[in-house]
């Protein structure tokens, strides 16, 4: 398996079509941002879309971004749009994406990465700790987790 950066790939159109196949509203929104060229406007310059692949198969994806759905906030960076295709769930593949984000954060001398989610018990498996609840852009309440980078 490989983790690739969507924006560094020479197959962006292919991977974009694979992202579009996700059965999740946020995945559809990510597809929309990427296809319209508004991704960086929404989540900040220098943000990344990381793809976990096996050959031509997209297994999982996420973003490593300045902003997520908790705005405005001074908290940054965020791991967001975390999705694993149903047939690949239960194998902790998202952990490989977490490892890449940790590597990137270390290179950037980042001490903490944040995650906004409704899930309870998922991100704790990867060393994340519940921090607080905050309002998301839709006015709903989201759980905010922090991953300390060591």
| CATH fold topology | Aminopeptidase
The structural domain count equals 1
The count of helical stretches stands at 4
Low-confidence stretches: none
Average pLDDT: 96
Extended strand count:
7
Query: Ends: how far apart?
Result: 24 Å
Along the chain, the helix and strand elements come as: EHHHEEEHEEE
Across the major sheet, the strand order is 1-2-3-4-5-7-6
- Sheet having the most strands: 7 strands, mixed
SSE layout and pairing:
Elements: E1 2-5, H1 12-20, H2 25-36, H3 39-43, E2 48-54, E3 57-65, E4 78-84, H4 94-107, E5 112-117, E6 129-135, E7 141-148
Report on this structure:
This protein is of the alpha+beta class. It has a single domain, classed as Gcn5-related N-acetyltransferase (GNAT) (Aminopeptidase, 3-Layer(aba) Sandwich), CATH 3.40.630. The protein is 27% helix and 32% strand. The protein contains 4 helices and 7 strands, in the order E-H-H-H-E-E-E-H-E-E-E. A hairpin with a 5-residue loop joins strand 6 and strand 7. The radius of gyration is 14 Å and the shape is globular. The relative contact order is 0.15.
Briefly summarize what is shown.
This protein has helices at residues 12-20, 25-36, 39-43, 94-107, and strands at residues 2-5, 48-54, 57-65, 78-84, 112-117, 129-135, 141-148.
Label this structure with key terms.
150 residues, alpha+beta, 7-stranded mixed sheet, 4 helices
